[in-house]
Records
---
Amino acid sequence: MFLDKINDDEKNVFLKLQKDGPLTKKQLLDITGFKPSTLNRIVMSLVDKGAVVEIGQQKSAVGRKPSVFDVNIDEKYLLGIDISRTALIAILCDMKLNILTSIKMPLGIPFGDQRPVVLLPVFCSQIRHMLEEQRCKSSDLLGAGVAMVGPVDRKIGKTQDVNTFLTPGWDELKLGDIFSRELECPVYVDNGVYAAVLVEYLYGAGRNHKSISFFNCGIGIRSGYISSGGIIRTADNAEASFAHTTIVPMGERCTCGKRGCIGCYSSTVVISENVRRRVVMGEDTLIETPADRIIYSDVVDAAERGDKMCKQELRLAGEYFGIALANYITLLNPELVIIGGVMANASSDFYESVLESATANIYYKNKTHVHFLRGGTYQNNTMAIGGAAMFFEKYMKNPIMD
């Protein structure tokens, strides 16, 4: 593999092309600060090793048009895998994280009685079929990154106390070994929301910011934060810590045993349960689904059609989340806050309520320092793409992965 044979200067140029390319030598000179003779030697060495290719000439140039270079995206591929409580997603990417193809295995009712020892081999079989359709062999993969609901022991690729799935068997699971054996390639495993915030920071909307936060709002609330080039991890590497901070003293009893956690007031489960209860009590609604089968998508669909009760519940959940988010912003002062996950991506009522509540409660008088973004660059694929990015950055020994 050519990446094993490049020196530090070559790696510097390669990574600039990987994230910013295609670029001319003049543009690379401006970015890297190398002398022209040094840069020319580096670029030619990368071309000889197959890491970089000349893809054409700069069309906008006047006179002799300079050559344009980019990474060789056809040499190796990356696989990103997202394991959440609602679906398993696998995405095949090229070396610049462009999506080539993907598969999704929904979890829930069809698979509710199956354990990961059954599901994961089936999922890997589907991944292998996906690769075959792309004429991609295991040897063509640089590796795979698995973004998993935490907490995860990333040093050995094993889940820890994961007990939020419909079926048992997800805790103390050696995911790295399973996927490495099934897919015959190197594998790196980490928390899903850390993968999400990493890919936005290095490749997406957060590239021009020193500090960004990513919130995945769904069945639970998962949060990740990067500041000055470092992922800020909790003591036990758990990504749900924010969800279990208290917002209502002596409030609703949480699954964690405490009272008043944010997750008690803002999640797809809570919203759906509140709507079901109000429907049973006889309140008017546009939802046609029987009360005991109402799910979050029913609530969002009805709200978009003007259902006042559903709008009220979505906005109330957003208000609670926004208050907690204001405390978070006041404490950590991120430049960019990305609110993703199915709650935000599917419902403008929820997202707009979050923004109204958060901006109203931030301590700072000048509140323009923080920018908000709905969904992020990669929307519902963020964690899977983040998994691929994490493997690549780990492989390239980026200090952010230490």
---
Amino acid sequence: MAHTCVIHRGSVGETGSMYTRLLVTDPDGPNEGAVLLTWELRLGVADPAGPVFPVHRSTDGGRTWAAHSTVPDTAYGFGNRYQPVLYELPAALGHLPRGAILLAGNAIPGDGSSTHLVVYSSVDGGATWRYESTVDSGGPAVYSPERFADTTAVWEPDLALVDGVLHCCFADEREKAAGMLQVIARRSTTDLRTWSAKDVVCGVPDRWRRPGMFVATSRMPDGRYRAVIEVVGPYEVPIHLLESDDGVHWGTGIGRHLISRGGVALSGTPNIAWHAEPDGTVVLLATGRHTWEDGHASNRALVSFDQGATWDHVDLPTPAERHLHGDAGGYSQSVRWNAAGELLHATTVRNLTGSHDVVVTVAPAPTRKDVR
């Protein structure tokens, strides 16, 4: 039976919460399998100190939650406003031990005049946080779909430690001189103090397709890595799958379109996660803001049992209607598995106030008999 818990109830006048991000910590590590959750709270925007990233914690696999901490903007004093992501270090990095938790997000002033991808660390399971460094800073927090837009923001960090190097991939709007409205860029560090020069992971020089929202898996049982991106420009905002042998090099293109054998496609704000079942079955699950079925939005995920070679679709466990326009419900949701092997689904659902509730559902993990 599925169990849904409301973590935050959106209030009248509150901009809808987005970017729900789960972290299931290593049960054999110092955090003992605790589950953490963060999201864009989008409250306190009138406060001079700006909004904070909330952190909630569960010690029973996601069934019950308690407010654990907040992460204020101690670097700039603007407010930690957009696109948080949580990451547990699987090995020591610089001055941080294995099991330290990182939170990366976008610090933005109230007038939206600049964007700053900041990283905070916690060595006590997310109870307290320390500013580490800024990965990169960009221009105003403005999105424009125009072919000749001059926007220069940086967005949506994603963290991965590979062979002792921490990589931060992010969406970057500063490559327009090369004909690319937005690219996936990367900077790397070995000490969380200095970051490498930027390199471009992927981009399309056609002033139309805008790859963004890169989210990668850890190393999978076949030794390879997978990542998803959205491609803004096409009306459906398709999700593409990238693959890598080493978690660093992702090829020269924008991957292949993710669509199930039944014709269901993901649309916008992707995420991806995998889990190895006790019998050795590897389940790979990808989500978007919604799915497309015959021109209508639906509440599905795509699932693969062969590490991404073929895909089917399953229902997501949180009941919700999804709409292409006028509703940000499900925007950048996430799925993970808890230590017991159950599926966790963190998402946002539009409520009667016109805002959005943040919810987490615990449900049986999808199996082959659940596919459509």
---
Amino acid sequence: MRNLLFLYLLVFAFSCQSIFAQTESETKDSMIPTAKLFDEFLNTIGSEDRSARIDALLSELQNNPNSKTVVLFYCGKECYYGEFEAHIRGIKLKLNFRGFDSSKFIFIYGGYRIKSEMQFWVVPKDGGLPLPESTIEFEDVKFKGTFKGKSKLKFIPYDCCDY
């Protein structure tokens, strides 16, 4: 009788282990992939540095063809009207110049921070998008006039906002 009880307990223990293991793996499989921060920088860097960073990002996307990119832009405590749009135009010009599909890019205006900055996030297929994190309030931002490019050249792939 004792041996039979021991056998039942043993079978029950192994059954529970497989049930819990199955539940754990199902949970892992159902998790949403998360976006990874690829690069972040202040927008005061020069156009050559920005172009190099975008080239590195494009290389990353070629290695992960199912991924998308989220570009999070934060305006600084001093902000130009139309600055966000100027960056989008500049990045899209760079993508067209390189023959890259701009539909893999999602542009998000993240709000305001002490200094104007940009973040590049790589989002895997079916992954969740990053959430913007503003660090200063709208009331604390001083808006300048409309941004006017300083370059006299007719075409530069990404030269929208040199300060």
